[in-house]
Design brief:
Helix 10 (561-577) packs parallel to helix 12 and helix 18 (730-746) packs parallel to helix 19 (783-802). The chain is 18% helix and 21% strand. It is built from 19 helices and 40 strands. The strands form 11 sheets. An 8-stranded parallel β-barrel has the order 21-22-25-28-29-30-31-32.
Length: 917
């Protein structure tokens, strides 16, 4: 992987620092680090100017020789010998060191020469009196290399750490810092331990720059570094090494209202200038998340949550970087780990922002494309490495890291968006082509799909596509229904901007985009949402409510405001950030009922003693109300298979059961799908006994705003493809297939067809290879049969879109009237559809394999003649060619209770549409 020079501690070409598995045997205990000098214990200097303790030497009892203590950033005291006589000529060169000059003592002459330390480079340490270690003149002492523990890989972000404890940084080599840099009081041992262990709730109070009496205290946490220097106000000052990767020092900078601007010079190499990195200090920046954001998050009302949480590139005080934020209210601490710090988050602890449960850290130099996760310290002290729940981009599965994302896409669908809300969706044509993106044309990227899919869908006349799967998921075989990246388009086919390009191209071709959305449950992967901060956070705390009994997943805790906020904002996110035109919400029934797939004793009634999940009801109402308010023209559709009252009723309208409507725009008509297919799979001779299965849907057709789905669920797992469900030989199967599509397109409600069914694919769909496009290859002998069915679908959509009677009054009983609904022995169904202006269309389906000549059909009076606009038995579709080529004149003979009638020929296993001539 290419190194990031603005953020990684060393380059790929330079030697890697190694890590230690524990403390050095001879190292002083952590509690004593700030109170012991290189020659033993010494009196600690008071930062406020208190007197240091005097120490008598063991060799000579001399009253005139005292040890003077000087305050420093590490709390150690650098002792220097006082001359027997008070000589003003021999004084410390500390002041010159602060101004960027180092006094080096010449061994031969005893004279001092001042030398400027160039900014940004390591300065030579002064070889003064009582050095901590003897070093060559002008060179810094090199630390001994330490060993790497074999059970701690340098970079392994995919699994969690088995030992739940991050690797330990290098220890101090007790080398002195530049002269003139004071030492700070030692950190409290407990606070030091919390900082190093990743359980400190506010590392900014310890790290960074802070005003203290006499100057500014600088403290940095840089594991594996050999030295750290501060570059401030044109000077360079090397900090003291406190061990465990901590460096500190006090600089006597002038008192000012604001902190001085500074940078850190971090050296990882053994020699001065080797593997040095000049960088900003993350701990000099104030929180960039405002009080309003935190207030809205706490209330669960942040409708643009993706702008507040997650990884967001930004510029703070003129410094470019990325702000990391995550909601983990029960964590003892959170750190950021990524490819910019070799997946060791020790140096990047985050701060807790009050009682919001949000942790925040701005990392300078980290930009778009960086990989990251959150190292969370759980309440029991163990660690877990987690992907970002709000990540807007991920690695390609099976890799699991989150990716810092910044969109650079420019949209070109202004015309589409402006036109989208002009007409209510339930009063407009809506014909949906459902697409499984990875398998529609296997191997294509989003951008390659954008060059093929819009043209194909437009040619067939569909008004919308429904895409699955969109949100990131670890297992491709789940078809996207076990989501781990709720805010990230799947990386299998490209970047988020590549997905935007696909949506944009569809819009430019006049095609709306719906997507499958899965807010009911999530998988148990240990790197994702399950027990995210060590507690049941996104899932319910009651195991009986958390575990989904059917799918081995966890159900969201819809009663928690932050969780509802996470999902509601997610719905808005797809519509606003990716211009999605609608959400098909999966598994709504499993959300609505507490006893869904649970036996007696396995569930607890709600506060009213009922089986309704009141929390889920409130969530769905809030989601729909928010989406419809913020995103004009967008629709939501529920996959709901029960008789729940008011799925598509407005949320503020209370129904007979006492509930307000759920607020969806549409509901999948699962009852129609099951009933009609039960009828079609039977031999025609037996269909008369199941005639009501085709007519029953009209009993409840106007109770909701319906979509008639033949979806992916109906053509997998042994259910067979649509054409293969039909009885008889190949000709009869195709004829039934065509007749059924004609019936479906003319039935009240919108329609949805899964890919492959538009050309009568015989095999079940598989995500492994997608539709059998080879069936349309002219070299295949039966290609014409499949091409004929696709030609029919094209004509169905063309006539449908051009005929308001087929869609304008879909939700109004005035738009439908039976002509013949009881001809069970004939297997015939005939009905009228009306447009808002009264324009009619007659649909007649003959589901028997016999031709019915001169079949009487009652028609409205005042229309002298009718003509056939569609016939599924036409020869060009692969049919027998039986039809009504001329005008059908109405006569005065009453039929079906109407004053006039016509007598068309009904083709075998076919549907015909008639309109006024």
């Amino acid at each position: 992987m290419t190194p990031r020079p603005d953020s990684r501690p060393f380059s790929e070409t330079s030697p890697r620092p190694v890590r230690t598995g524990g403390r050095d045997e001879d190292a002083a205990p952590a509690a004593a680090q700030g109170a012991a000098g290189p020659k033993g214990p010494a009196g600690a200097a008071d930062p406020a100017g208190g007197k240091p303790a005097a120490k008598k030497t063991a060799a000579k009892k001399t009253a005139v020789k005292r040890t003077a203590a000087k305050k420093t950033a590490t709390g150690k005291v650098v002792a220097k010998k006082a001359a027997a006589k008070k000589t003003a000529a021999k004084k410390t060169a500390a002041k010159k060191a602060v101004t960027g000059k180092v006094v080096a003592k010449k061994a031969a002459t005893g004279k001092a020469a001042a030398k400027k330390a160039p900014a940004g480079k390591t300065a030579a340490r002064a070889a003064g009196k009582a050095p901590a270690r003897k070093v060559a003149a002008g060179k810094a002492a090199a630390s001994e290399p330490v060993a790497l523990r074999q059970d701690e890989p340098l970079k392994d972000h995919a699994p969690n750490w088995p030992g739940a404890r991050p690797p330990a940084p290098r220890r101090s080599d007790d080398a002195p810092a530049g002269q003139g840099v004071g030492r700070a009081a030692a950190l409290d041992p407990g606070e030091r331990q919390r900082l190093l262990h990743g359980s400190h709730h506010d590392p900014h109070t310890v790290l960074g720059a802070h005003r203290v009496p006499g100057g500014v205290l600088f403290r940095a946490l840089r594991p594996y570094a050999r030295c750290v220097a501060v570059l401030a106000e044109g000077v360079r000052a090397e900090l003291h090494d406190d061990g465990d990767g901590l460096f500190s020092g006090v600089l006597p900078l002038a008192a000012e209202p604001s902190m001085p601007s500074y940078r850190l010079l971090v050296r990882y190499g053994e020699e001065p200038g080797q593997d040095e990195l000049e960088t900003e200090d993350p701990y000099r920046f104030l929180p960039s998340l405002g009080e309003l954001d935190l207030h809205l998050i706490g209330e669960g009302r942040h409708e643009e949550l993706w702008r507040a949480l997650g990884a967001r590139p930004m510029t703070v005080d003129g410094v470019a970087g990325t702000r990391f934020t995550v909601w983990a209210p029960n964590a003892l601490g959170v750190r950021v780990a990524g490819d910019f710090n070799c997946w060791d988050g020790t140096a990047c602890p985050m701060r807790s922002l009050g009682g919001s449960g949000v942790w925040e850290l701005f990392l300078p130099g980290v930009g778009a494309g960086a990989l990251y996760k959150f190292d969370i310290t759980r309440p029991d002290g163990s660690h877990t490495l987690r992907a970002d729940p709000m990540a807007r981009r991920t690695e390609v599965p099976p890799a699991t890291a989150s990716v810092v994302e910044e969109s650079a896409y420019t949209w070109h669908d202004e015309e589409w968006l402006a036109r989208r809300a002009e007409r209510a969706p339930h009063q407009a044509p809506l014909s949906v082509y459902e697409v499984h993106l990875p398998s529609w044309r296997p191997g294509l990227t989003y951008r390659e799909l954008a060059e093929q899919l819009p043209a194909y869908v437009k040619d067939l006349g569909f008004t919308h596509v429904e895409l699955m799967p969109v949100a990131e998921h670890p297992f491709g075989g789940s078809w996207g229904y076990q989501v781990t990246g709720f805010y990230a388009p799947t990386a299998r086919m490209g970047t988020p901007d590549d997905f935007r390009y696909l949506v944009d191209r569809l819009h430019q071709e006049g095609i709306g985009v719906l997507m499958d959305w899965v807010p009911a449950h999530f998988p148990k992967d240990e790197w994702a949402l399950a027990r995210f901060d060590g507690t049941a956070l996104y899932e319910h705390s009651d195991p009986a409510r958390a575990e989904h009994p059917d799918w081995g997943t966890l159900e969201f805790n819809f009663g928690r405001t932050e969780v509802r906020n996470f999902l509601v904002a997610n719905a808005v996110y797809w519509c606003e950030e990716f211009h999605i035109d609608g959400l098909r919400v999966d598994a709504v029934a499993s959300m609505l009922y507490l006893d869904y797939s649970r036996e007696s004793g396995q569930w607890t009634p709600n506060v009213y003693g009922g089986r309704e999940n009141l929390d889920a009801v409130a969530f769905l109402q809030e989601m729909n109300a928010t989406v419809y308010r913020r995103c004009p023209g967008v629709i939501t559709a529920a996959e709901e298979s029960t008789a729940w009252d008011g799925v598509t009723r407005a949320t503020h309208h209370t129904g007979p059961g006492g509930f307000g409507g759920l607020g969806f725009g549409f509901k999948w008509n699962m009852g129609w799908m099951h009933d009609s297919l039960e009828y079609m799979v039977r031999e025609p001779v037996h269909r008369k006994y199941h005639h009501n299965e085709m007519t029953f849907s009209m009993v409840y057709a106007y109770s909701e705003n319906y979509i008639l789905p033949i979806s992916h669920d109906e053509v997998v797992h042994g259910k067979r493809s649509l054409v293969s469900k039909m009885p008889g030989d190949w000709w009869q199967q195709r004829a039934d297939h065509r007749a059924y599509l004609g019936f479906m397109w003319s039935h009240p409600g919108k329609q949805l067809l899964f890919m492959g069914q538009e050309f009568a694919q015989g095999a079940e769909w598989s995500e492994a290879h997608g539709p059998d496009w080879w069936l349309l290859d002219p070299a295949y002998s039966a290609a014409g049969d499949h091409q004929g069915v696709r030609d029919l679908v094209r004509d169905l959509n063309r006539v449908y879109t051009a005929t308001p009677a087929l869609w304008e009054l879909d939700t109004d009983p005035a738009g439908f009237s039976w002509i013949e609904g009881g001809a069970a022995d004939d297997n015939v169904f005939a009905f009228l559809r009306y447009a808002a202006d009264g324009s009619p269309l007659i649909a007649v389906s003959n589901f028997s394999p016999v031709v019915r000549h001169g079949y009487p059909i009652g028609v409205p009076e005042g229309i002298p003649a009718w003509r056939e606009v569609l016939n599924t038995d036409a020869a060009r579709y692969g049919g027998s060619g039986v039809g009504n080529p001329g005008a059908l004149k109405a006569d005065a003979a009453p039929a079906h209770g109407r004053p006039a009638g016509i007598a068309p020929t009904l083709p075998p296993l076919a549907t015909i549409w008639l309109v006024p001539a």
